[in-house]
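Example record used in the benchmark description.
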Amino acid sequence: MGVFLPECGNSFGMPQVQLPIFPAGVTHINSEVAFEERDGKVYYFNGHLPVFVHEKSALATFRLFSTQLVINGNATQAEISRAFGVPLVTVKRYVKLYREAGAAAFFAPAKKRSASKLTAEVSQQAQGLLDQGLEVPEVGRQLGILSNTLHKAIRSGRLRAGKKKTHSTVR
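Model output (structure tokens):
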């Protein structure tokens, strides 16, 4: 899950990844399970017995293992959230992901969204209307597409902005 940090200049609402916190020394998740970050690796313990280790930067592995702790009943979602400083909703999201899609889902490439509304045919129609001098909001209304979608296509070069209409004054 993301957090919004207006003080960092992202007031436009782009979510940022909330990374787990791995403080120095042993940190208890609960009375049975603890973890420790050492030399760029995170070690997990059940009592004094080390049970798992991963690179500190291995976010997918962290998500999988912390979810396993919840699924196996070794820790609650709230305990994972508190121990690693990640939002509870994020922990819940990954538990749900595991239950629905299994361990492989943590390592699958991110799904890409496509410009499904802006097909080749619709792009051609939009370009024709823009070339006639219509403003982007009007083109959007006529084609049933959000103005924002058209502006993105213009910025990315998939569409060209239309010529501005010049109003001649009669004297």
